[in-house]
Design brief:
33% of the residues lie in helices and 11% in strands. By secondary structure, the protein is of the alpha/beta class. Strands 2-1-4-3-5 form a 5-stranded parallel β-sheet, with helices on one face. Helix 1 links the parallel strand 1 and strand 2. Helix 3 runs antiparallel to helix 4. The chain is globular and about 35 Å long. The N and C termini lie far apart (30 Å). Keywords: Cytoplasm, Ribosome biogenesis, rRNA processing, S-adenosyl-L-methionine, Transferase. It comes from Methanomicrobium antiquum.
Length: 163
């Protein structure tokens, strides 16, 4: 299992926060400051210049930034060396169902885990949400293709068929 890490800016309602729920099940470790996150982690960042691919599996952990777009735009993660963006996927969470690129944190974790070859761990974390496994159903075909890619350039090629 790949260790899951998160940083929260506390901008979302903790009662519906997917990271907080994962923390209750001890499936994620939340860091109080972004600067305290280990530098060798693979950080999921929607603004990253490179797409996540199976070639990134060598990273020791996976991190999400559970924050607003406004926080991301402040440059808090500039210079982070292992940032990756997720390819085209559609949200299944109740707040953004059917909207492309609008994944919540657990969906981002699950997508990354699936692409990195950890489908069982992806299912485990999604199973904690009554809508969770629907994410895998909605995105079954692209996730399978992304998981079979060799690198980031192939991910972008596959993504072009969906987006």
């Amino acid at each position: 299992m790949i260790p899951l890490l998160a940083w929260r800016d506390n901008s979302c309602n903790p009662k519906v926060c997917s990271v907080k729920k994962l923390e209750k099940f001890r499936l994620v470790k939340i860091y109080p400051r972004v600067t305290s996150i280990p530098k060798n982690t693979l950080m999921l960042d929607p603004t990253a210049p490179q797409a996540l691919s199976p070639a990134d599996k060598i990273s020791p952990s996976l991190t999400v930034l559970d924050c607003t777009w406004e926080t991301l735009n402040t440059g808090i993660i500039d210079g982070w060396h292992k940032r990756r963006a997720l390819p085209f996927l559609v949200a299944a969470n109740p707040g953004h169902f059917g909207r492309p690129f609008m994944l919540n944190s657990v969906e981002a974790f699950a997508a990354a885990l699936y692409i990195l070859g950890e489908a069982e761990q992806a299912k485990l974390i999604l199973s904690k949400f009554n809508w969770g496994l629907r994410f895998l159903e909605v995105n079954a075909k692209p996730l399978e293709e992304y998981a079979g890619a060799k690198d980031s350039s192939e991910i972008l090629e596959i993504q072009s068929y969906y987006y």
